[in-house]
Amino acid sequence: MAKISFYLILLALGALISWGVQLAPPLFGLAGWATSLLLGGLGGLALAGIVVGAALAIERRLAHGGGRSLLSGVLLALVGSLIGLLVYFILELIFPPSPALTLTEGLIIIFGAVLGGRIGYLRSAQLLRLLQGEVKGSIGLPKLLDTSVIIDGRIGDIVKTGFIEGKIILPQFILDELHNIADSSDNLRRRKGRRGLDILGELKRNPEVEVETLEREGPRSVDADRKLIQLAKELGASILTTDYNLNKVAKVEGIRVLNINELANAVKPRFLPGEELEVEVIDRGEEIGQGVGYLDDGTMVVVENGRRFIGKKIHVVVHSSLQTEAGKMLFVRPKGEHVRR
How far apart are CA 295 and CA 278, in angstroms? Predict the structure, then answer.
């Protein structure tokens, strides 16, 4: 009912204004005042539709956690309008008055407002970092925790080393998701969830780590990854995760991502062909005669002609290595027949 009343008010207002100024001359035999009423009413309806559509769009955006992006867009739109007005006064001083000049000046002001609003809305995170005196990639940026990185457990040990600096933010919807996992009927999921809660407890008890729980909820129809990406844009924050898909999507949208798996692969020791090491052969390989073992950091070692050494530790020589998305693989050969039992 309120929406209908709003449409009727603007319809009447547009008709009255246009009738008062005689917006249109007689057309097709109709009186000028009747044409003015019609055009004014249609203009009022169009304006009402634009206002209602904009209000609904803003409401949806706020529900998705885009308040800071909208504010940034409005501020930059005002800046763009001011620049347009400056150009307007300059043109007024240079050129004589004319309808073409007036039209050009109006278009410049509108263009400045639209351009500024779009830049402010789409680049709110970068603008926030500039206002905070931070550059892209700064270690001081706040970091949002993802469910996967909490359950993984390694974040606690990494934070203790001091390699991760800055405020760590735990969104409420991530904490709720973690509680749901900890209450799962599946035994493995329940254990992972409870381990994640224990890790959070350790982080909050650590006096050298600043952990803040952010009370932020979004629409239930939107998944946690999308909420996290939107929140990172709004806060100008990076995301701590081990989720491969979230990692890819966030990077596409310009969010800085700290992936624990990528860090683990980066700090694994590099082995050159000809280097010697010791490995325990624990299983068969895919090819005939191959054995498989693992280093302490989880690196898979494929031992050529190593199947006969299953259950034993042997000295091997590195032949080559292969980097995959799952990690690094080493291909080695036994060094002589020296076997450690």
Answer: 9
Task: For residues 117 and 111, give the distance between their C-alpha atoms in angstroms, rounded to a whole number.
Answer: 10
The token pair that represents 115 in the structure block: 């351009």
Token readout for 261 is 């798996």
DSSP letter, residue 311? T
pLDDT at 194: 92
Which of 331, 328, 329 has its CA nearest to residue 319? 331
Flag whether 44 is in a domain: yes
Cα 299 to the chain's mean position, in Å? Answer: 31
223 lies in some domain: yes
User: What pLDDT, in 10s, does the model give residues 166-221?
Assistant: 789 898 889 989 999 999 888 888 998 899 899 998 888 888 888 888 876 656 66
Q: Do 295 and 261 fall into the same domain?
A: no
Residue 124 lies in a domain: yes
Residue 303: its pLDDT value, please? 92
Average of per-residue pLDDT values in the chain: 75
The pTM of this model reads: 0.52
AA letter at 239: I
Tell me the C-alpha distance between 56 and 48, whole Å.
12
DSSP run (H or E) holding 8: helix 2-21
Q: Is 173 helix (H, G, I), strand (E, B) or coil?
A: helix
Q: How many domains does the chain have?
A: 3
